[in-house]
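Duplicate of #3305? Posting structure anyway:
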């Protein structure tokens, strides 16, 4: 096959090269960006290129590819949505994308997408409009429609083309979760026609284009799935069930999932044209919702945070090997993200061989699950596990760049760990403590090199929770802060830098919220009613259930430390002591506020808890008031943290609360939520409860000052 290249046509981000064999290659490369994103102004450029292709009868096929070395198209440029002043304007944006992609689909010549790296959102919609798709088998290649995570839906034909290509159930699952799939899954589901090594990707795509428009692969369906997917009665069942499950999951707090289901249903029952019209209309409406605006704010905040160093103009040192002290669940989780995400060597030390075995098994089990599901090759798993070693002493610690301590909460034990690390490592080794409650200054009290001592607080389970708090004392060096922030980021975490003090930020704002939930239970409100009220508000689990999940012994350990530093407003109701005295530690020992025996472990309240605490159950408050009483204390504490400089800004406070404790993302975090309520309203509600329930509701002075001056956090 001749591959002589004809003169190039350049139009904005697009470059068209034609070959002697009649195959043209259209490459997209957005100048000055690391990844390709679709921008509104490209509409005109791509139209001119397509006009040229259609006019040139010598072109027999077209391959769409990327000029970027590690991405296809990572989606649409979200920032253009902020310029939309009405739903009609946003709808017009969607229609513009639909029209361009429809034109690609209707081209007389075969159009093949050659995908390497992320093809997400509008990037996948572009590929779906092509007649065929081939992707590389590289680990960075992933395909998905994540718009739901921004409170939106795929607005350029994605809700119509994906279900027709891979079936309603799989397409709906991808769109409602926003989860991307790897190359292998994309091939299995039929999103792509072929998967090949990156080195031959373009050659295979060119060959595919030269053979005409590829035929659709026949999907093999069971009789049940044939009924569900291919008959109107079956589809009715599918959509009804999807709506029911979605409502149960979202509690009606997110408007985009039901609209996604609506688009798919209309398109399949009334035809693709009607489906496209509904898709554009719903897209326009969703862009203007407060939920989408807040979810987009989170996206911009986390994108901004990825570019920041821990301390401005201070370069982080390279971390190649870490030591981990303690082989419990936290130690195992930290080891896992260190070897798999950060790609460093990790050495676990524990006083007990079983501790080391458990920590290593933690990584093995998680990776083996991926191998069994065929998301990972066994050789890849073995390569990652080979980075993990263990010992009962400090042998193998001499060349560590950082040692992360994850032992139980005892200040003297942690101080001894600092002394040991200073003795057995280098003079540059950072000591990072994963304490959840003890101020880092106390841990560093006897350190010879206090500038190298820092807090690195993870949340459980470490492999899933996205936040890490980096806690600096007044003696921690800027280099130590920058290095720790960068390493946490390499572990796949979103780090926020917080000032040292009891509870740091996340646990400090969580404690009054949990205490209030316990007070409500003591006053007779049913446990499941309190939990359901907060889940309806938008938290992933209720406060009482959360305490069972975390461990009642762990959750209550922080209270005396907070009381010691901040006084009576953190005083916990007697409920916790009585529960612990009864041997109830929560889920981990199968005994807590909830019942972990029987057919529905953890689903039903253990009714014996009421007689243990001497409570006669009597629901008197509305669910709204239950949620308000708990959440207001969290908001008030967050404002105090900002005023005291515990967090650097409102943005970090919002991200910390969302990623650390599941504050409802659609509300944007405590500070954006207070802004949307109006600070005068927040103060007015706090003062109402201050009169009714006492001093702990006294509004933070910063809230009163800002309300009187009509200021906002953003």
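Output from current build:
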């Amino acid at each position: 096959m001749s591959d002589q290249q004809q003169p190039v046509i350049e139009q904005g981000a697009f470059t068209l090269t034609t070959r002697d064999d009649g195959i043209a290659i259209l490459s997209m490369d957005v100048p000055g960006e690391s990844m390709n994103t679709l921008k509104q102004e490209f509409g005109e450029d791509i139209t001119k290129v397509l006009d040229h292709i259609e006019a040139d009868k010598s072109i027999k096929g077209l391959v769409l590819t990327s000029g970027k070395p590690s991405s296809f198209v990572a989606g649409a440029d979200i920032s253009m949505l902020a310029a939309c002043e009405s739903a009609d304007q946003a709808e017009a944006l969607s229609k513009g994308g639909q029209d361009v992609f429809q034109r690609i689909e209707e081209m007389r010549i075969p159009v093949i997408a050659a995908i390497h790296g992320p093809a997400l959102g509008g990037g996948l919609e572009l590929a779906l409009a092509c007649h065929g798709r081939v992707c590389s088998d590289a680990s960075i290649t992933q395909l998905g429609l994540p718009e739901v995570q921004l409170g939106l839906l795929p607005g350029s034909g994605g809700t119509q083309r994906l279900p027709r290509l891979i079936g309603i159930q799989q397409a709906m699952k991808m769109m409602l979760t926003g989860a991307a799939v790897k190359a292998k899954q994309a091939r299995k589901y039929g999103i792509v026609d072929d998967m090949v090594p990156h080195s031959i990707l373009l050659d295979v795509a060119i060959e595919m284009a030269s053979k005409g428009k590829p035929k659709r692969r026949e999907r093999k369906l069971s009789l049940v799935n044939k009924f569900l997917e291919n008959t109107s009665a079956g589809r009715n069942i599918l959509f009804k069930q999807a709506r029911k499950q979605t409502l149960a999951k979202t509690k009606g707090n997110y408007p985009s999932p039901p609209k996604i289901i609506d688009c798919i249903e209309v398109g399949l029952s009334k035809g693709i044209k009607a489906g496209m019209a509904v898709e554009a209309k719903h897209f326009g409406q969703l862009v203007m919702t407060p939920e989408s605006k807040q979810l987009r704010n989170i996206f911009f905040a986390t994108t901004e945070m990825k570019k920041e160093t821990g301390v401005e103009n201070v370069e982080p040192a390279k971390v190649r090997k870490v030591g981990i002290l303690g082989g419990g669940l936290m130690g195992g989780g930290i080891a896992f993200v260190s070897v798999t995400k950060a790609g460093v060597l990790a050495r676990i030390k524990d006083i007990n061989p079983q501790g080391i075995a458990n920590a290593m098994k933690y990584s093995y089990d998680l990776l083996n699950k991926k191998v069994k599901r065929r998301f990972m090759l066994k050789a890849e798993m073995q390569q990652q596990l080979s980075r993990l070693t263990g010992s009962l002493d400090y042998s193998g610690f001499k060349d560590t760049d950082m040692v992360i301590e994850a032992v139980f909460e005892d200040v003297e034990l942690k101080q001894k760990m600092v002394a040991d690390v200073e003795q057995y490592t280098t003079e540059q080794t950072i000591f990072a403590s994963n304490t959840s409650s003890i101020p880092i200054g106390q841990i560093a009290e006897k350190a010879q090199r206090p500038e190298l001592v820092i807090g690195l607080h993870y949340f459980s389970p470490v492999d899933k929770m996205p936040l890490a708090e980096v806690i600096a004392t007044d003696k921690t060096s800027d280099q130590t802060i920058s290095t720790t922030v960068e390493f946490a980021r390499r572990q796949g975490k979103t780090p926020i830098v917080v000032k040292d003090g009891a509870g740091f930020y996340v646990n400090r704002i969580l404690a009054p919220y949990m205490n209030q939930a316990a007070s409500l239970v003591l006053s007779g409100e049913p446990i499941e009613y309190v939990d359901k009220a907060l889940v309806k508000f938008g938290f992933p689990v209720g406060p009482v259930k959360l305490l069972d999940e975390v461990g009642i012994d762990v959750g209550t350990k922080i209270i005396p430390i907070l009381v010691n530093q901040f006084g009576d407003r953190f005083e916990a109701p007697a409920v916790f002591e009585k529960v612990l005295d009864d041997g109830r530690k929560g889920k981990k020992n199968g005994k807590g506020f909830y019942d972990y025996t029987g057919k529905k472990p953890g689903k039903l309240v253990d009714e014996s808890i009421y007689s243990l605490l001497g409570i006669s159950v009597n629901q008197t408050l509305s669910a709204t008031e239950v949620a308000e009483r708990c959440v207001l204390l969290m908001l008030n504490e967050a404002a105090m943290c900002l005023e005291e400089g515990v967090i650097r800004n409102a943005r970090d406070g919002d991200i910390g609360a969302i990623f650390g404790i599941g504050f409802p993302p659609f509300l944007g975090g405590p500070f954006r939520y207070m802004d949307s309520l109006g600070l005068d309203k927040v103060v007015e509600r706090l003062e109402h409860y201050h009169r009714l329930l006492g001093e702990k509701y006294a509004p933070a002075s910063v809230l009163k000052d800002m309300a009187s001056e009509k200021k906002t956090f953003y």
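Confirmed duplicate; merging threads. The radius of gyration is 28 Å. The mean pLDDT is 94.
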